[in-house]
Fold each of these.
Amino acid sequence: MLLAMLIHTIVQLSVTAQQNLTPFGIASQSTVYGGTLSNPNNAILPPISNDFDLNICSHTADGSDPSADWWMFQFSFELAYITDITIYYRTEFAYRMDGFKLYVTNTSAIPPNGYLCYEDSDPGLPNITQNIPCYKSGKYVIYYDTTGDEFFGPVVELCYVAINGCPKGMWGPNCTESCSSICIGKQCYPENGSCIWGCDPQRCVNGRCDTHTGTCIDGCVTGWVGQSCICGKCNMCK
Ligand SMILES: *[C@@H]1O[C@H](CO)[C@@H](O)[C@H](O)[C@H]1NC(C)=O
Ligand SMILES: *[C@@H]1O[C@H](CO)[C@@H](O)[C@H](O)[C@H]1NC(C)=O
Ligand SMILES: *[C@@H]1O[C@H](CO)[C@@H](O)[C@H](O)[C@H]1NC(C)=O
Ligand SMILES: *[C@@H]1O[C@H](CO)[C@@H](O)[C@H](O)[C@H]1NC(C)=O
């Protein structure tokens, strides 16, 4: 049991090592404090720290919308396969981060209409630096706050955000490997290249393919390896 838990932990750690995709897209937010200062894109530019300054962090306008404040990142490519998201919030302002939600979505709709990766729960204040595993594909990442500050209502002050994963069709630590053409839709998991929707049945003996697991039930045809035909590895063993 202990060994199983240790292995599980190691596997989880090895997952959180994909490329930061924030150079490939733009950020926006519900409102901008102080005119052109506190630009939402400050949160995707260095420094990577919790130190606050309007020139280096995002900051929504205080109290201008009592119901919700948000920060949104939109990828410049069609679809990202996200593995995890790291947030650096403003030092000493965890109380404004309290109750935040993090979404991955395919639309820019507010309130967010997509997958809820994480919701800060009570009791206690959140850590201002958080790595949040979120294994999901999408076009947008949204930090959403409906609680926040008792005087000003929701306020978003993000100093740095890293969104790790790979663009659709790519995998590997630096997303430099192409997903194998055997994968349906050429879509594979960013960390290991295995097909997400399974293999093309034409690559499998008798065309028998488990579309959920990507396994060739009767094995692979010549040129592809493994009892279970691990699809992402096929392009390395032509
Ligand atoms: C976004 O669209 C892709 C492709 O249709 C789908 O696989 C994915 O689950 C969607 N993501 C969300 C968060 O709905
Ligand atoms: C904050 O960080 C500490 C230490 O890393 C961890 O034990 C705790 O679970 C974290 N709390 C939250 C709410 O993430
Ligand atoms: C990924 O990129 C980094 C920085 O350029 C480099 O040091 C590393 O060797 C690369 N890793 C792989 C597996 O290509
Ligand atoms: C590849 O990663 C996915 C997502 O974590 C996992 O479900 C799948 O089993 C992995 N494939 C292999 C061959 O390890």
Amino acid sequence: MKIYQQLCSFMAVLFVFPNTGSSYSCNIPVILQGTWFSRENGRNTFTELDATSMSRRGRCLAMKEEFHVNYTLIFKQDLCYTCVKFLVRTVNVLEKIETPCVDAPEDHVSIDTICHSSNSSQQLVTLFSENYVPVNCRSSLHGVWNFAYQNKFKFTGECKHPDSYIRSCEQPDSQFLKTNQRFNITYKKCTGMTGSFDGVVEYSCLGDWFLGKNHYFAVANTKESRRDEKYRCFLKNLDSDLYLGVSTTADCSTLNTVENSPERLHIKPVQPEIIEPGCRLPQNFSGNWINTANMDADIFINETHIIETWNYDNGRSSNTTYVCKEQHDSLVMMARLTIGSCQKEYVCFDFVLQHHNIVRYRKGTPMITDNFHTVCSKMQFQNQVKSKYELYLRKNPMHFDDGSNL
Ligand SMILES: *[C@@H]1O[C@H](CO)[C@@H](O)[C@H](O)[C@H]1NC(C)=O
Ligand SMILES: *[C@@H]1O[C@H](CO)[C@@H](O)[C@H](O)[C@H]1NC(C)=O
Ligand SMILES: *[C@@H]1O[C@H](CO)[C@@H](O)[C@H](O)[C@H]1NC(C)=O
Ligand SMILES: *[C@@H]1O[C@H](CO)[C@@H](O)[C@H](O)[C@H]1NC(C)=O
Ligand SMILES: *[C@@H]1O[C@H](CO)[C@@H](O)[C@H](O)[C@H]1NC(C)=O
Ligand SMILES: *[C@@H]1O[C@H](CO)[C@@H](O)[C@H](O)[C@H]1NC(C)=O
């Protein structure tokens, strides 16, 4: 008798969810469980998901999983069924689309019927984990920029100030660890633009994701306790690194294109700090050169600096500067500064001027330390084969009285 009853209820489950594949039970995956914050219809909303239910939506009846990132679930609360699709963006961020709650005959309840009967006016809602785990910012944002900003809702025009900057770099978290789980945006006020302001905003990174060419990342303001002001989304476009879009609410769906974002930052990689030279290169190195290892770069050398400049197709350029710091014989330790990068590094060059028109050199691994004996230790070149020398060729070869140019 008991077995017969169990069989009956098993058949009933089969009957009720004919289209949900082979799994009838619904175990909400751990990645969806927890307490989440969202802005829904202009209100702060908290949503709780545990292994079997969702707050205000009821008990989970069925689930469909696609590629571990898309989960479609049906919930039942009283006589009402809701279909919720969760898109896992990062461990800290979900987006959801859901149908209005519908009444349905029990024998009609399945993912297909409940989810597809729904009406297309569905809106994507961003859910931020209340117990977020900060992640490394490096894949979201890494470097130092100057910026000008626009805010659609606060002022017209662009607030441009030389001291507004974004800095996302590794910083010491403990004696041994350097991490980059937070970044700072320093805003400066522009006279006449009400809504522009002076202040530093520090964000924790909550992870990033791609949708086509749109690169999104989510953040939490570390100094803000009001939930709706705490969470924000950023948008970059893979085709252009000139702008960043920022949401002005805890909602990523307001960011569709960088251009039309509520707040838009016009960013420019920052020229790194000025470094005083500590040595001089031979005068006969000075001039303009071509680097055979990197034909696309122009090389300018004077007695204290080597500047490599790249020109991109789109008319923009970038450069790396080396400053002479310390020299012993043919070995020169140079400080390397890259536009927009977080820190200076030191590199050992081993130079041989072969002719007036050719410089042969080897380059060691960049290091953070400025200790000559470490940066230029024998180890730096020991494992390199002899042919590892690279060449600078004089751009406009010097000619001599005998007609030779060597
Ligand atoms: C997840 O769902 C979204 C929205 O329905 C869809 O655009 C995307 O292609 C899906 N991704 C995967 C991996 O199924
Ligand atoms: C979708 O739902 C809205 C209200 O929730 C309703 O006004 C509209 O007619 C529905 N559209 C369809 C195609 O069912
Ligand atoms: C952000 O700026 C504040 C104040 O200037 C500073 O204390 C903090 O360490 C900075 N955080 C980061 C990640 O640079
Ligand atoms: C380059 O200049 C150095 C001294 O500054 C000199 O010793 C060396 O002979 C010169 N090399 C060539 C190839 O002219
Ligand atoms: C070498 O060029 C750099 C960059 O243009 C400049 O700052 C520096 O003063 C120059 N050094 C000398 C010795 O002329
Ligand atoms: C290097 O690039 C920066 C930023 O694009 C630019 O401001 C600077 O003038 C460049 N420096 C040189 C020497 O080309």
Amino acid sequence: MIRGRCCRDMAVHSLVVALLMLLSVVQLRADNAPKEEEEDLGFFMPMAPEQKPEKLQRLVTIAKDIREKAQKQPEAVALAISAAACTLPPVPLERALRVIKDIPSAAQEHLPAAVDLLASIRELGTAAECLQHPNTPHGSPGPLSYIIAANLYECEAIMPFWILEVLRLALLLRNDPLLQQAYFHNVTTQTNFKSTASISIYESGSQDATVTWLRVAEALWTAAAIPNTVVINGVLTRQTLMDPFSGAFYKQHRIEYLASLRNAAMEPVYTSAPGTYDYVIFINDVFFCAPDMLRLAAFEGDIACGLDFEVWIGNKKGRVSGVTQRFLRRLMQSKTSSVETIVADDSVITWQTAVEHMSKVHVEEAARQAAADARVQAAKIKPRYEFYDTWVSRDIGGSPYGKTDPIARDYRTIDLLHRGLPIPAKCCWNGMVILNATHLARGLKFRSSLTVEGEYDISECSLFCEDYRRLGATNVVVDPSVRVSYLVWTKEFHGKLPGGVGAKVPWSLIQRSGALDELQSLWRDTKSCMKMTWVPLKKYAEEADLEKYRAVDLASVNYTDIFLEHLKHPSSTPSKPATCNLIMGPYGASYEGMAFDDLSLSAFGKNPITTITYSNTTELQSLQVEYGSKPGLSHGTPNATSTVTLSSDETIDHVIVYFSEKAVSGMLLTTSNGRNVSMGVIEPEHGSYAWATPCPGDADRAGKYRLISFAGTADKVVRSVTLVWTPKE
Ligand SMILES: *[C@@H]1O[C@H](CO)[C@@H](O)[C@H](O)[C@H]1NC(C)=O
Ligand SMILES: *[C@@H]1O[C@H](CO)[C@@H](O)[C@H](O)[C@H]1NC(C)=O
Ligand SMILES: *[C@@H]1O[C@H](CO)[C@@H](O)[C@H](O)[C@H]1NC(C)=O
Ligand SMILES: *[C@@H]1O[C@H](CO)[C@@H](O)[C@H](O)[C@H]1NC(C)=O
Ligand SMILES: *[C@@H]1O[C@H](CO)[C@@H](O)[C@H](O)[C@H]1NC(C)=O
Ligand SMILES: *[C@@H]1O[C@H](CO)[C@@H](O)[C@H](O)[C@H]1NC(C)=O
């Protein structure tokens, strides 16, 4: 009967959807008409100071100091960090100081260092303005255990804010009494249950300061007694595979790669006993506010999300949205902003300097925000927020969300959406999501589509929703008052937004509005509805092609079952790719210098590397390689060069590349004869290194590949290198 209702509605509904889609197409075209544009896309954003290497270095040092102290006095230091977290914006500093004034003296001893650390982190980034929400849920709704998971990649601009917001979230989830008191004013009742929160981060391949930020984060979270697993420089990279016969390159399936990253972050969940975690919280590299997640947790749904937004200025936004947003993020870091660090000498952090430091952070943040708001006021064209994730989101009828009013098209939820009330849905992710982890005990993981078995190609998050639905986890909710963004926002973000999204509604009002009962009833009515709409991605753009949709019945073929069966019999699915990534790199500053590529000289490995000539000065100033008897061009500036000659059957089997954000510092080559050749500066003081051999970390495959050629970029020095490998015969 229930099913009947859902599916009868579908027939009429499809027509409405088709019409709405047509309308949105027309509207999109209209939007593309040329408009007057602001010169500078970043004009509305609060500017953040530059993340100078020496400042980052100091941060790593003081974060590690505090972690060391925590080893000796774990409780006192953790308490000091909770107290310090109270002093961050948006909590007024006076109120925070009132709340924390009576903490035990053992903790007070660590308070200056903790406050100074948090101020030092926060001042190096742009902060999104989180409004105070005295009426949101204050913590976990019950004695539950949470794990916050994330995949991070090249997002240094967002890290200062993100790290601290994750700290605040973890503390609030475990009902930290100090933070609750500071954030929500007069909290009178204290919970009589214990909940826990831990963190799992997986990062791989970042070449910016994300890696350094994660070292700071790891030390900070550990000192705060939040269990965490932070994998930095993980070995998963999106593989470029080479067909050894044709020499043609192809990229690993994007979704397969993204699913593997998510699974890597979920490793602690998969490897713990079922029931260890009640909820998994996935947070992208977005600006978000911690109390919003408490709101999502309060639904106690199977999947709960907010909405994610992109910023447009007029019609300016690149074709590939991710790239533009990243470009804009780079703008957030103004080179001119001069923020001096108050404490010059680490040894003199006193309570007074620490509070002054934090106070300066509050003042500057407010000033930056006010200046940005003023620029927006004065601007002819205002920033416009547009709902982003149309590819994954599905309304309660299974139709994709659109970009225009109403973004969630099912008529049963349009009114709720316009009023800013929570709406049931079939799928959402939207930059930040909380998942009931119970269902994972069935063995479910993130995956890519089983295209061989006939499943349509969709994202790993969409598949996750579909798998959850087939397993009976159908309580999905989107709260339009919870908003995240890839850039910081201005005041307008809290009000009505394009797409028919009502202004934010306080939680207390939601409770009184009857929306929660409505939600339960819609969940019940649609529980067995298995209709979904499939939408492909546009060619060459990571954007849903809403014109090419198709109806799918999730009940017709149980791909979830097929997937779970595959997992049980790993022999039937090759879980490891049969080939490794044969192109390693680029390492170094790949955007600088002229590109070179010796692959054709090497004739795809037919002409083996015979000699390498290089400058062994302060960095890798030059590199020249001879393939067979064909000398390649010299890249960089030859200066005091050395030459290595390989014997006739000697191959290069292993390479470590040392590099910085500016150039390649050196390389350590190991040959099949066990010879080590060190070029340039090995193990430099600053900078990263990478195991540039295929399948790093896979002992079975070590030594089974040989280096066939170099590519990279160079000007007066070698800026970046990429290494091309082939399996040994
Ligand atoms: C704080 O407590 C006072 C008195 O108990 C009450 O009148 C006031 O509304 C409370 N404020 C908030 C924000 O809850
Ligand atoms: C998660 O879902 C299961 C199955 O529907 C349910 O029994 C459980 O209460 C949910 N967990 C939480 C923490 O709400
Ligand atoms: C799909 O298969 C799973 C696992 O075998 C099963 O639990 C679930 O009920 C099935 N769902 C549907 C809709 O057939
Ligand atoms: C290159 O320089 C390093 C130190 O600067 C030195 O240890 C190494 O032996 C040099 N290599 C050659 C081949 O000269
Ligand atoms: C050659 O290397 C030396 C030592 O690092 C350096 O002082 C000199 O400036 C370099 N010469 C050129 C032309 O780059
Ligand atoms: C070559 O370098 C590696 C890594 O630093 C080291 O483990 C190995 O012992 C070295 N081999 C020789 C022959 O020096």
Amino acid sequence: MNLSNFIILGILFSSSSGGKNECYSCSGVCHNEPCNCQMGSCESNQCFIEKKPTEIPGSMKITKGCLRRSSRIHHGCEYDHFSDHILCVCQGHYCNDKVVMNTTRQKYARTITCRECSEKNPNCDSTCEGHWCHEDMSTGASGCGYGPPALPFYYRGPELFYYRSKVCITLSRGAGKPRRHCICSLNMCNQLNSPQNYHNYKDREKESGLKLRSLAMTSPDTNVPLQSCYNCETNTQDAAAMSHTTNCRSNRCMGHFCTYAAQRHTSKNSMGRSNMVHAVSELQGCMNVSDRNNIMLGCSKKWISDEYEEIHCACRGNLCNSDSLTAASSMLNGFHVLIPLLLSFFVLF
Ligand SMILES: *[C@@H]1O[C@H](CO)[C@@H](O)[C@H](O)[C@H]1NC(C)=O
Ligand SMILES: *[C@@H]1O[C@H](CO)[C@@H](O)[C@H](O)[C@H]1NC(C)=O
């Protein structure tokens, strides 16, 4: 059994115990420190605080709420991909009290130099200093990442780079070509090819549509069998219209894992009783990976009461990404086998 299974097991057990814990659930904009809100509540063992800049220069938005199975491997306050975004994750009753930027991990994070180019000018000479580098191999955009290494549907933590210095995924989600993203941990590691080759690469990509994979420097993990998944994108302002927009449900893609992501904006109705759903977006698709360690199987959820929720799931099994319940239970099926196995192990010894 590998490390990620242990982590998942630990989370499974810890989230099934208790459940009476609450978190602050509020949001607000502030212009000066200290930036805080202490209102509202939602029920969960894991809480978060998020702090990011708003469109108005100098002002920050702070958001607090609940998490279920956070993708962050380590608790505490750390950068969230960007140098001006902070995400704190904690466990316990109203633990999301205030932002504290002094985890030991933060202090010892090594800084590296990365290429930093926009989609418009992917062949530029700019660099940045960050904790890890990223690149979008489909557009050529590149830059620096801060805090725990972050890749969609993976756990977030330095563990991602324990065995490899570069991890890549290819995501197909709804219409459009699959997109390839990579993150890496060495100086200037986000150079797709040497700069002078980039245009050749662009031309070849145009000619042959989907030649990205053959050019990728990280070979895919070929031990993972392919799954057939839903490949569908749904966006609606009106929940009732959902049933009419399911025509892409007949689209399929193949990949090592199926993925499901959803966002819902909700509010209490005037009677304050039931939740009204204002907008829903759902993305179902496929993911190929260069490294299957640290993929977060099952679903993680983040929510603010009566306002917002987002769900991210990865699963294995044909068409396991029809909805979040199916995606979450397809992971549990594997553990029904694993838990008796573990128990029999302890009985025997
Ligand atoms: C962070 O700093 C505060 C005040 O300096 C201290 O009380 C707290 O224990 C520190 N937390 C960590 C995780 O080091
Ligand atoms: C994943 O790889 C398989 C086999 O190479 C390919 O058929 C499939 O289209 C790929 N899926 C994505 C999302 O790139």
